[in-house]
Write a structure and sequence with these properties.
alpha/beta, single chain, Rossmann fold, five-stranded antiparallel beta sheet, 2 domains
């Protein structure tokens, strides 16, 4: 007997008046999987999560979570899922321990069991020493970790994390990543993670779906999606008045790829072995190169190949976090 997937959606849609936020999303998430939902701001990520977690009623289509229909059996869905939303409100005048106790009561967990579970969760997310401090004194990373603990108090089989690391410093983000991995590995928790950070999806997720304009444009394992892009991307930064000359000089080395203003990008056929020839071609065309990088295919390249543009902030994010292992000249 096969076990039903813990998350499924078929032609899920949501409109707000004339605005179509989600336009026919279909997906299936396997038990014990960390599934990434990747896309820019406004792509429909959070709206999809709100429908899957029963906070928004779909305009069309259907979805089942933890075996229950999100509309017909909303109460059953809520009892079986954990949710940590990007804009979750946490009372700053309560302590972390008080909030965990309150969450246990709301889920009908007996007092003694709730106390034990609360202590374990606070320790797990590294907040034992801060448990009796007012949440208003917590840093952003500490609040996100507390929100994660609150979402786990009733031991859900499915956990929804909506952009959990937005606005966090790099160390806080890595700490939260480690905790998500532990939850998945130790308890088999199915995780549905929305993010706009390429490195986050790459680091955590076994499969991803890329959403843009309310529709899924690519889906699969990150490694397979990147391999499908093909050649590495050569990015060359030049003066604005030299962009056309640079494009012409590099045209013979590979197909053009989307890039930000002032940067010419191509899929460099032959990879690093053709770098020297590309540099010579630019020199012959009297193009002064400010900066040059060769990147192995990334999820940003997957997004660009699917949509014709780069994911918002992808290049700056990659530079800050060292993603892509560029060859720089």
């Amino acid at each position: 007997m096969t076990t039903a997937a813990p998350i499924t959606a078929h032609d899920l849609a949501r409109s707000f008046g004339d605005i179509v936020a989600v336009d026919g999303v279909s997906l299936s998430v396997s038990e014990g999987e960390i599934f990434g939902f990747l896309g820019p701001n406004g792509a429909g990520k959070s709206t999809t999560v709100r429908m899957l977690t029963t906070l928004l009623r779909p305009t069309a289509g259907s979805a089942r979570v933890a075996g229950f229909d999100v509309v017909a059996d909303a109460a059953s869905v809520r009892r079986r899922i954990g949710v940590a939303l990007q804009d979750a409100a946490i009372d700053p005048l309560m302590t972390g321990r008080e909030l965990v106790r309150l969450q246990a009561v709301l889920h009908g967990i007996p007092t003694e069991a709730g106390e034990t579970r609360g202590r374990e969760l606070l320790e797990r997310v590294g907040l034992t020493d801060a448990a009796d401090r007012l949440v208003g004194t917590y840093s952003g990373g500490m609040r996100r970790r507390l929100d994660l603990a609150l979402s786990l108090i009733h031991e859900p089989s499915v956990l929804f994390l909506d952009e959990p690391t937005t606005g966090l410093d790099p160390m806080s983000r890595i700490t939260l990543w480690d905790e998500v991995r532990r939850l998945n590995e130790e308890f088999g928790t199915t995780v549905f993670l929305t993010t706009q950070y390429l490195e986050e999806a790459d680091a955590l997720c076994g499969r991803i779906a890329i959403i843009d304009g309310g529709r899924i444009v690519r889906e699969g394992e990150p490694s397979r999606l990147k391999a499908d892009v093909g050649e590495p991307t050569l990015r060359v930064e030049v003066d604005h008045d030299a962009v056309d000359r640079a494009r012409t000089a590099l045209a013979e080395f590979g197909e053009a790829r989307p890039s930000r203003q002032g940067v010419v990008a191509i899929g460099l056929v032959g990879g690093a072995t053709r770098m020297a020839a590309a540099v010579r071609a630019l020199d012959t065309a009297s193009v002064e190169v400010k900066h040059m990088e060769l990147h192995a295919p990334s999820l940003d390249d997957v997004f660009a190949e699917a949509t014709g543009r780069r994911l918002e902030g992808a290049e700056s994010g990659a530079a800050e976090d060292g993603v892509g292992d560029p060859v720089v000249t």
